[in-house]
Design a protein that fits this description.
about 260 residues, alpha+beta, Coagulation Factor XIII, Chain A, domain 1, six-stranded mixed beta sheet, five-stranded antiparallel beta sheet, 3 helices, 17 strands, elongated
Length: about 260
């Protein structure tokens, strides 16, 4: 392979649900970045790869000289090719009146960047490796019954349940069914935890007052539209079930299906 032939390059990434459409299997690609390279890092790479006759310090000095010149020319009103882009100054905001002037209250200066045609053509040759769909399900990993200090086992109605997990913050728009729910393992009857009973509602931790559940075994489920990587809500609630069954009282019996009243 000739030395001047460009090396085949590739990027990898994961898929996450596109929250801007109604399509259920619509995803966006998120690049998995391999690191952060400063200008000095690039200069050191240029020295170490053996293809440059200049040292890293010499390359850095040359870069700073070019950067100063490019900035001066751009600030004077020239369009300047530097890096991957053509750079140009823009003045934003309205100019109103018979003798309009620049007003810092409504006007601002910014830099516009246009990718060089040569760079765009080279990007077309990059191989894109698509990874797995990133999990957006809320996941409860552990719960503690505060009254008994039981982990992943007992429930004491009327007392506090603390929990840990990932994406377990309850959030949702009007009309969506979100929250914590106890599901009786035998009858499938569902008991929601009132919003007013939730005292801690974080992405990784929660606390709430356990409802007055009858003796028996229960699944704990959480449903939420919380999106960990965005301020926007997911289009639909994600609902998942805790891996352990949780027991109230002795788990229920034929002799006594309800709480004992003194």
């Amino acid at each position: 392979m000739p030395d001047n032939e460009p090396k085949k390059l590739s990027i990898t990434g994961t898929l996450t649900e596109n929250k801007l459409t109604e399509q259920p299997d619509d995803y966006t690609f998120n690049v998995t970045y391999i690191g952060k390279r400063s200008i000095m890092d690039l200069c050191q790479l240029g020295e170490s790869d053996g293809k440059s006759k200049f040292t890293a310090d010499e390359l850095y000095t040359a870069y700073n000289t070019l950067f100063t010149l490019a900035k001066r020319e751009a600030f004077l009103g020239a369009t300047v090719e530097f890096g991957f882009c053509t750079n140009m100054i823009r003045v934003n905001g309205p100019f109103v009146g018979p003798k309009p002037e620049f007003d810092p209250e409504v006007n601002s200066i910014s830099m516009q960047h246009t990718t060089l045609e040569s760079v765009r053509k080279e990007m077309e040759g990059i191989t894109v490796i698509v990874g797995d769909v990133k999990n957006t399900q809320p996941t409860i990993s552990r719960v503690i019954d505060v009254y008994t200090q039981s982990v992943n086992d007992k429930l004491t109605p009327g007392n506090i349940l603390n929990g840990e997990g990932d994406r377990v913050k309850v959030a949702g728009s009007e009309g969506k069914t979100v929250g914590f729910f106890f599901i009786n393992t035998e009858t499938e009857a569902e008991t929601p935890v009132p919003t007013t009973s939730i005292s801690r509602n974080d992405p990784s931790n929660f606390s709430f007052l356990i409802p007055q559940l009858a003796d028996g075994t229960y699944y704990l489920e959480v449903a939420t539209q919380f999106a960990a990587s965005s301020k926007a809500l997911l289009k639909e609630p994600r609902r998942s079930r805790f891996a352990y069954t949780l027991t109230v009282g002795d788990g229920g019996s034929d002799e006594d299906d309800g709480p004992i009243v003194q």
